[in-house]
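User: Please predict the structure of the protein below. I'd like the answer in structure-token form so I can feed it into my own downstream comparison script.

Assistant: Understood. Taking the following sequence of 183 residues as input:
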Amino acid sequence: MRRILLVAFVFTICFSQAFGQSDQEIEAAAQKALRAYSLSAIETSIQNNTITLTGLVNLCRDKLLAIETIRRIHGVKGVIDRIQVYGLRVPDSQRQAQVDRIIQNRIRSLGGFGFGSMTARLKDGVVTLSGTAALKLREPAIAAIAGISGVKDLVDHVGRVAEYDTGWHSNFTGYATGFALAP
């Protein structure tokens, strides 16, 4: 019986070392990462390698940064977001104009062609993005939108596409008419 318990104990230790970190190690890494980004107002709790984030932040950008930071920690299987964004209460119509301007300006700065298209819809401070876009359009637009005071959350339904070739190429050498000019 002792031998079976010893084998089970050794197997458990080897299994946890070979396949990931303990919940305590992951939570310590999560707290360290959040402090590194000055997000110490966000609290963590962990169960079965899934981290729950709670707390209040000023901007949606801080919330998105915290979630992405935690997802990248080795051993994290999931993130439960319970972070609340507080800030100015701005009517959705006013915020919609800001968001649309950000997207339009980003497309314009890229030359207006070849990087896809994004649209935004707002409801109660939550921005839902859709469309298809290359990273040069998508990432800076999301970062700017998440930095708007009063944006509570950002839902990204933008399909990723490769950057298009914006140059026009032609192998045109002339028309073949089948007519010969008379001498």
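That's the full token string. The radius of gyration is 26 Å.
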